[in-house]
Amino acid sequence: MSRGGVLVTGCAGFIGSHIVEALLLMGYDVVGVDCFTPYYSDRIKRHNLTEALHHRGFKLVELDLSRTSIDDLTSIVRDVSYVIHEAAQPGVRSSWGADFDAYVKHNILASQKLLEAVLRARSVKRFVYASSSSIYGNIESIPISEEVTPRPYSPYGVTKLTAENLCRVYYENFNVPIVILRYFTVYGPRQRPDMAFHKFIKSMLKGEPIYVYGDGQQARDFTYIEDVVEATIRSIECEDNVIGQAINVGYGKPVKLMDVIEIIAELCNVEPQIVFKEEMKGDVKATWADISKARKLLGWEPRTKLRDGLEAEMLWIKQAIEIGLI
Fold this sequence. Notes:
Number of helices: 10
Largest sheet: 7 strands, parallel
Oligomer: single chain
Distance between the termini: 38 Å
Mean pLDDT: 96
Radius of gyration: 19 Å
């Protein structure tokens, strides 16, 4: 028996596709929306949906949220009880310059239209917005709690914070039941090819050099995909006291990039060929999530250790190379 309908935007992406599969396994019906932007290979994204497309509880709708009328979006939203909004233009480093138009379009305009559709449909019990630790910027007081004042350090971070603010005004003015989840550096199988772990693992497996921007001493709070999926689904199933809240989703422990490279090299059984390059604009020095709020409101605890998560990603990339996917 179905547990209700969930709309997942960005359903073919790294995080979205994992959420879709988990929801289907739990008995939810899922409507997946994706516009297959050319940020990375369409072939990879469609491969991410292999399992879901064989499930009778899944329906794929290909559309661009930013270009679709609010009336049409409202018609889609009326058929579901929950919305998990994962769709976005990702990437800190590519958000500068002329490409910023795409970030405004996919991160801000698309979010506003979807919020308006949820308001008009009046059928949605929970609207979960997938935000990012990038909204915080270079916060000196760590671990970072949700109460600090965000100061984005990149155009990408600015657009994610703007979308958060849109969620808040729809909640405060119209009681749209929003929940904001601030993901901290998600990794694991299906990770986007532009992300560091994916690049490092692929290059090491192929005996190629890896490129490190800066001195490699920057630290991140790395969060495994299965833990992120669990937190996200808990946010639609938990008590209503979560509505209106912004919640950090991280492992709760920062790790330096050079230490990660050492683990990956051991897993790949290679001596890494490291090429250091100039630090990239927009990259913060450290992220570290205070996850006490997630523990309290979601009853959630990250469970996957970094080495185990990296091994799972390495095995996925190895297989993807073998089948010619990447």
